[in-house]
Specification:
Blueprint (H helix, E strand, L loop, with lengths): L14 E4 L3 H17 L15 E3 L10 H22 L3 H6 L1 E11 L5 E4 L6 E8 L13 E3 L26 E3 L5 E6 L4 E3 L8 E11 L7
Antiparallel strand pairs: 1-8, 2-3, 3-10, 4-9, 5-8, 5-10, 6-7, 6-9
Helix pairs in contact: 1-2
Length: about 220
């Protein structure tokens, strides 16, 4: 008798990209963002729980004319459109007609800073780009970890020997990502996620964005 066939009936697409030469870009981004922090350009209406050790810019970052910001925007859009095209089966012609709307912002996090569990309503795709992962204390391996909650939350209603040791992708564990400089993570905006408290000297700096889209004449595509 053959073994039962195990099939992944549900899946969540994530995409990971690494900037090939991030150092000059990241240094320019860091200089700009620390300047914005010094000017007090803090988001006046935060939407998610955080503490004073985390500085958040306004949500219009990708609309700023700073050259480094615009270079990063082009990199993120290029990577995101590649993912959308692959998943949706869009041609290059279709992708060129896709209208992108966005909010984008930055976080400068110092010791003890965190960001609580949340997702991003009214958007289809979100991304996080790492400018500087910071320097983590040796005894704090989870410092600044970007953690995603498995979407099938009801799978955790009961644990016993029949399901307690199932590994990813079928297990219900959190998915934890240690960001590196130049790393871009793209994910569906509905996925719940959080940032563990940053424990280390200096700053942990990331740039995040939400996107929603319109395809003119979509009915004829």
């Amino acid at each position: 008798m053959s073994a039962p066939e195990i099939v992944p009936m549900f899946a969540v697409p994530f995409a990971f990209s690494q900037h090939e030469a991030p150092d000059p870009l990241n240094q320019a981004l860091k200089n700009y963002l620390l300047e914005q922090e010094a000017l007090g350009a803090r988001n006046p209406r935060p939407l998610t729980q955080r503490n004073a050790a985390l500085f958040e810019t306004h949500f219009d970052l990708f609309r700023q004319p700073n050259p480094a910001v615009q270079e990063l925007k082009r990199f993120c859009w290029d990577r995101m459109l590649a993912v959308i095209g692959q998943l949706n089966g869009y041609t290059l012609e279709t992708l060129e007609r896709l209208e992108i709307f966005n909010d984008a912002w930055a976080h400068v996090t110092r010791r003890g800073g965190y960001f609580s569990l949340h997702n991003h309503p009214n958007a289809s795709w979100s991304g996080v780009y790492c400018v500087d992962p910071g320097q983590h204390d040796p005894d704090r391996p989870d410092s600044g970890t970007l953690s995603f909650l498995g979407p099938v939350t009801t799978s955790a209603m009961h644990f016993d020997a029949g399901n307690a040791r199932i590994p990813p992708p079928f297990g219900s564990q959190m998915r934890n990502i240690k960001l590196e400089a130049g790393r871009l993570v793209l994910f569906p905006s509905w996925v719940l996620h959080e940032v563990k408290p940053y424990e280390g000297p200096g700053e942990r700096i990331t740039i995040a964005f939400n996107c929603w889209f319109n395809l003119p004449d979509a009915a004829r595509t």
